[in-house]
Amino acid sequence: MTETVKPRRTFRNIHVTQIISYRLPPAGIVSILHRISGFLMFLLLPFIIWMFDTSLTSEISYGQFTSVFAGGIGPVPGLFFKLVVLALIWAYLHHFIAGLRHLWMDMTHAVTLEFGHSSAIVTLALSVLLTLLLGSKLFF
Amino acid sequence: MAQNFGSKRIVVGAHYGFKDWLSQRVTATLMALFTVALIVQVLMPGAMDYDKWAGIFSSNWMKTLTFVVIISFLYHVWVGMRDIWMDYIKPVGVRLGLQVFTLAWLVGCAGWAIQVLWRL
pTM of the entire structure? Predict the structure, then answer.
């Protein structure tokens, strides 16, 4: 039997260490940030659940929760925790909006190059804008 | 063509992906609905303090929704993290170790979150 299957084009995954050397289009930036933001939230999961725990368990723990952001713990200033939360807010918003973009493309079969480009720019801009908006509540 | 069945089958770890693709979208939709439900309640009139915050999570429907979202989250993060390990970590032993760690870690975190929720 003759070989009828043509060798397929193979696609490589860009390794994390190679990200810098690639000049990605906006859709590529959204894609890798989707992954990075998800990983970041995974790493900070204990901190997220700690916030969930202390803010909900009792009025006393709620007080401890707010004091961490106002006065910090030991040598770590409250500002550090606010910055961590700011990073989490960005990660959540980016992951959320990039996810909605996926759902939209799945439902409408919007697969044109133009849509991919413009929606990627909207995703990047909107997530940063909303992060600034919500983040300002942390500091002021 | 080379044989790709029986004992010669090329084993892939992701079950060809459809189930994961679908579950990723279903769990994401649930979490998005939860986010909207939470934001709406936070924006309700009244200053934010412990009573308001704990009140949001103590209603029965919100407790149930939060519980479902914790389980959705568990599965969503498992699929996402497994993808990351499969893409970047090539040695099988290290990958398996990280996958086992991820599963144990996620189940532990979900347990913690559910415990917090159940105490309310």
Answer: 0.85
